[in-house]
Specification:
Blueprint: E1 2-5, H1 6-20, E2 24-28, H2 44-48, E3 53-55, H3 60-72, E4 76-80, H4 91-98, H5 101-104, E5 114-119, H6 134-138, E6 144-147, H7 151-163, E7 168-173, E8 180-183, E9 196-199, E10 204-208, H8 212-225, E11 230-234, E12 237-239, H9 243-253, E13 256-263, H10 268-279, E14 289-293, H11 302-308, H12 312-324
Parallel strand pairs: 2-3, 2-4, 4-5, 5-7, 6-7, 10-11, 10-13, 13-14
Antiparallel strand pairs: 1-8, 6-12, 9-11
Helix pairs in contact: 1-7, 3-4, 8-12
């Protein structure tokens, strides 16, 4: 076991897969000599050279299209978005090409591409650098979407994503790169379609993902001292959603809170509520509580920025109110 940062866990996963398979390569803005904006590709350029760690121009639609073309020919590209917000410029390539070419080619082409990078509300990065794009991409057919929340699952998810024959988007939160955790010395992989039960409980189910996992656990630690017993599920897979895991939890608790950093309108929580109503409505004893970010561009002002997202005290209040019903 070795304690490492999350950015190092992602770098290790990339390095291991590049060593394992010569068809794996990395491309993006400043991934080479600079080592990536958050050091996920640090030192990989010196090890693998220009042809496998490619610095690209500031032209997201162009290098995304190049990566998809490379995937069609049998290579396995990893595209780093310097900030995931910038990948809106490549939305056409991701949706119409990466997501659909396997289908529109009649199965003649696989698209084994990984799209990864930082996103989320950081520390006064401004509206255009604080995007949460999971809801934008969640509706696109053909994509798999995962969100890491710890160094352990970051490494295991990225290794699995690189070996998958489908396009996978891996969301990393800009404020989680400096998390530290002990990782196994032996190789491991994690499934791309399963949620994680972080804490078992009996009173209420709390579903969350990415950075909000840590806000939820702060709240749960306080609640546990007062005798409350919530169950916590880290969604991890945003597409497909592990609705079976959620359903099994609701069979115990019959109450549900969803905590997300995504915007409320059309967010991931909205999709979970729809699927719960379709599949597990009879297990609910009360309406689902949705704790989401405000539907506004993220303010640059630090105080206003903090006010747009959910914090532990709001989760604590919601759990107490729901359990009291």
């Amino acid at each position: 076991m070795a304690e490492i940062f999350m950015f190092d866990a992602l770098r290790e996963a990339t390095d291991e897969e590049m060593s394992h398979n010569s068809s794996v390569f990395v491309l993006g803005e400043d991934v080479g000599y600079y080592g990536g904006s958050y050091k996920v590709t640090k030192d990989l350029h010196a090890k693998y050279g220009d042809l496998r760690v490619l610095d690209t121009p500031i032209a997201e639609n162009s290098f995304m299209g190049m990566a998809i073309g490379a995937a069609i020919t049998g290579l396995r590209p990893i595209v780093e978005g310097m900030n995931m917000s910038f990948l809106l410029l490549a939305f056409n390539q991701i949706s119409n090409n990466a997501g659909m070419l396997r289908y529109t080619s009649g199965g003649n082409f696989n698209i084994p591409i990984v799209i990864r990078g930082p996103g989320g509300v950081g520390r006064q990065l401004g509206a255009e650098h604080s995007q949460r794009l999971e809801a934008y991409f969640q509706a696109i057919p053909g994509l798999k979407i995962v969100a890491c929340s710890t160094p352990y699952n970051a490494k295991g998810l990225l290794k699995s994503a690189i070996r998958d024959n489908n396009p996978v988007i891996l969301f990393e939160h800009v404020l989680l790169y400096n998390l530290k955790e002990d990782l196994p010395d032996q190789e491991y992989f994690l499934p791309l379609d399963k949620a994680e039960v972080v804490k078992e409980g009996s009173q209420v189910t709390i579903i969350t993902y990415s950075r909000m996992r840590h806000h939820v656990m702060q709240a749960v630690n306080s609640l546990s001292k007062e005798g409350y017993d919530p169950e916590v599920i880290d969604l991890i897979s945003l597409k497909p959603i592990d609705i079976e895991c959620i359903g099994l939890s609701l069979m115990k608790t019959h109450k549900l809170i969803i905590v997300e950093e995504c915007m409320k309108t059309g967010g991931i929580a909205a999709e979970i509520i729809a699927q719960v109503n379709d599949n597990w409505f009879d297990q609910l004893d009360s309406p689902v509580i949705r704790l989401s970010s405000h539907d506004i561009p993220t303010p640059y002002n630090g105080t206003l920025e903090r006010a747009t997202v959910i914090h532990p005290h709001q989760i604590i209040e919601s759990v107490k109110n729901l359990v009291a019903l």
